[in-house]
Amino acid sequence: MPVYVATDITIPDAELHWRFSRSSGPGGQGVNTTDSRVELVFDLAGTRSLPEALRERALTRLADRLVDGSIVIAASEFRSQLRNRQAASERLGELLRKAIAAPPPKRRATKPTKGSQRRRLEGKRRRSQVKRLRRDTSD
Q: Where is the composition biased (Basic residues) (predicted)?
């Protein structure tokens, strides 16, 4: 099952490596016999599915999650292996969508408005008055 990242970007099955193991959690006695835990490994550093610029952006943004240039996603929240495979591939798609997203536009610095400056100073005056009333005046 390929992973859909964007309308024009798809990661084929050939670039995904799946590992299966026994899962802890829900499943009753079947949890001891079924390999329902899924690990999805995707080699981000070596992929040819992403354009070069997007791959570099994703490598930079996901640097703390990478293990030797690969993303590892584990899924074991469902009882069936198929559902866990779907969850892992959806998670990988979402992670890559966020990683390759264009950066937000730069914020233009503006001056505080007169009203906000006035409100800030009034708040400071009020706070000062409260603290002044708390002082011990018995000299």
A: 105-139
Helix residue ranges, H only, 50-113: 52-61, 81-100
pTM of the model as a whole? 0.70
The residue type of 77 is: E
* 118 located within any domain: no
The DSSP code for 123 is H
Range of the domain at 90: 3-100
What total number of domains does the chain contain? 1
What pLDDT, in 10s, does the model give residues 43-56? 988 888 888 998 99
The sign one gets for the Cα dihedral 28, 34, 35, 38 is: negative
pLDDT digits (tens, 9 = 90+) for 75-115: 988 888 899 999 999 999 999 999 988 888 999 999 999 99
**1, 8, 20, 11: which is closest to 95 by C-alpha?**
11
CATH at residue 84:
3.30.160.20
Residue 113 lies in a domain: no
